[in-house]
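agent> Task received from the user: take the single chain below, predict its 3D structure, and emit structure tokens. No templates, no multimer pairing.
agent> Plan: (1) validate residues, (2) run structure prediction, (3) serialize to tokens, (4) report one or two observations.
agent> Step 1 OK, no nonstandard residues flagged.
tool_call: predict_structure(input=
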Amino acid sequence: VGEIHDEYDAETDTPVQKIGEGRFTADAAINLADLEAHTGLVLPSEEGDFESLGGFLVHRAGRVPDVGSVIVVGDYRLVVKEADDTKVMRVEILRRGNDSFTSEAP
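)
tool_result: status=success, residues=106
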């Protein structure tokens, strides 16, 4: 029969969840246009040929970044929350002006 979902179920298939003001968690497979629509983050496309947030992070780091790795892009800090040997899976996105942006700086 399958699972039954209603309006009270948590949205687990949403690629981006807002977890606070200027703070998001995102599936690294999200395409760049959807990422921008949800968070306002525009990644520098001139840096390379990538289609997803995870692809950008791998390109920028030159490898799959370790969990906890931080990459700053303009007014945003991207923190790798989940990854394995082959890909990044989950990323926390913090926009400057968020208290966590400065209090958790490496």
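agent> Step 4: summary for the user.
The helical segments are 32-39, 53-61, 99-103.
agent> Done.
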